[in-house]
Amino acid sequence: MIVDLVKLARPKQWSKSVFVLIGPLYGFAAGQSVDWRSVAFAVLAFALASSGCYIVNDIRDADADRAHPRKKHRPIASGAVAPKLGAMAALVIFAAGGAAAAFGVNPAVALPTCLWLGLYVLNVTLYSVGLKHVVVLDVISLASGFVLRVLAGCAAAGVEPSTWLLNSTLFVSMFLAFGKRLGERRTMGAEVSAVRAVQSTYTDDLLRMVVVVTGVACLVTYAGYVQAQAERYTAHVFGAWGFNLLWMTVLPATYGLLRCIVQVERGIYDDPTELASRDRPFQVAVAAFAGLTLLAMWAAGHRG
Question: Is 3.40.50.300 the CATH number for 1-161?
Answer without folding.
Answer: no
